[in-house]
Amino acid sequence: MAPVISEFMSRGIEPIVICVQQSEDLLDQVIPIFPWLHGVDPNALPSHHAAMSRMETVVIGAIDIVGQAIRHHKPDVVLVHGDTSTAFGAGIAAFYEGVPLGHVEAGLRTGDIRNPFPEEMHRVQLDRMSDYLFAPTQHAAEILEAENHQGEIFLTGNTEMDALRWVIEKGEEVDSSICGDRPYVVVTAHRRENQEQLGNIAEALVGLALLKYEYDFIFPAHPTPKVQAMAKTLEGIENIKVVPPMSFDKFIPLVNGARLVLTDSGGLQEDGAYLNVPVLVMRTTTERPEAVSCGSAKMVGTGAHKIVVETLELLENEDSWRNMATAPCPFGNGYAASMIVDHLEDAL
Fold first, then answer.
1. Are residues 93 and 18 in the same domain?
2. What is the separation, in whole angstroms, between the first and last Cα of the chain?
3. What distance in Å separates the CA atoms of residue 109 and residue 141, rounded to the nearest whole number?
4. With contact defined as beta carbons under 8 Å apart, do 107 and 140 qualify?
């Protein structure tokens, strides 16, 4: 949402930023990156909301916090992003208070209401409640049209691309202590539905490291206990580099310089398409089928053998790698925020 906040400010429209602290540690990483967020205080909330972890608690907290903010500030519109418990709770608060709701990144679907859980349910219900649906891709817009929503649908691209463009134009250098001068593959794994498959992913990484010793495999380890436990099984393998989680402005240059990305992340499927870095998706479903359709990403599941085979194909076959690396990006051109604010100014 940082690009949208910036766009409001550049036009003299006051954005009121509400931080519900669902992932306070991640918020602390993001605020320093974008200069226009430096006045946002992530701790300016009642203390009993400061350590929310269970999903239902987050939703209830968001309804309470955002509901209070709506009654106090009386905004013209409430914007939520994506499919988190925070976004879902904030959407409910806006709906209950009778304030127009805008959903940024609307229309994403896997088709399985329980996968990913609970995000798929959140995004479906948010789209039902929203007055303004900002679709990141043509495919997402077509899904919303087919579902016959009452809200207005606007094709804008994804604001993630705006943030990427800003970071790349900033010219941040890759940390040489992490990647050195060797070619490398970036690996991430963190999704809730993949927690029981982390052993397979670790097995695949070990196999790849032994087979492709000329490459480093860089793994920023998510702080969740199961991922940290997996990371310990990778210790002692010289060309697997387990590193702490990285802030967005440090991580994107790392991805930009990678040969390819192995991930279960949704956002990285978009990032890879924009940066022309092939992405192998270690999942069985994706809410971003556009990346697969355009050829910038490929689904490889969570079986160790499949992950190894598909990764070797891209590391050893230049034509296969080039076909993915040159695929067109379906997620927008990095100017979604200006289109979103244009539409809201017209509507309101």
1. yes
2. 20
3. 11
4. yes
Cα 281 to Cα 193: distance, rounded to the nearest angstrom: 14
The whole-number pLDDT of residue 197 equals 83
Pick from 125, 93, 90: nearest CA to 106: 125
Range of the domain at 102: 2-158+332-347
Q: What is the DSSP letter of 29?
A: H
Tally of domains within the chain: 2
Tokens 């070990």 correspond to 206
Determine the Cα angle at 226 with ends 221 and 232, to 5°: 60
Q: Is the dihedral of CA 36, 40, 42, 48 positive or negative?
A: negative
Residues annotated as catalytic are 83, 105, 119, 190, 192, 222
CB neighbour list of residue 251: distance below 8 Å, 6 or more residues apart: 220
- Note the pLDDT tens digit of each residue in 33-84: 888 888 776 655 544 444 455 788 889 999 999 999 999 999 999 999 999 9
Question: 214-218, 220-224, 263-267, 299-303: which range is least confident on average?
Answer: 220-224
What is the SS3 assignment for 81? strand
Query: What's the count of helices (H) and strands (E) in the chain, helices before strands?
Result: 16, 10
Say how many C-beta atoms besides its own lie within 10 A of residue 255's C-beta: 23
**pLDDT tens-digit series, residues 200-247:** 999 999 999 999 999 999 999 988 888 899 999 998 999 999 999 888
3-class state of residue 24 by DSSP? helix
Same domain, 216 and 114: no
Residue type, 178: I
| Pair 153, 133: CB distance under 8 Å | yes
Do 114 and 23 fall within a single domain?
yes
Taken in order 174, 157, 300, 234, the sign of the CA dihedral is: positive
Collapsed DSSP state (helix, strand, coil) of residue 281: strand
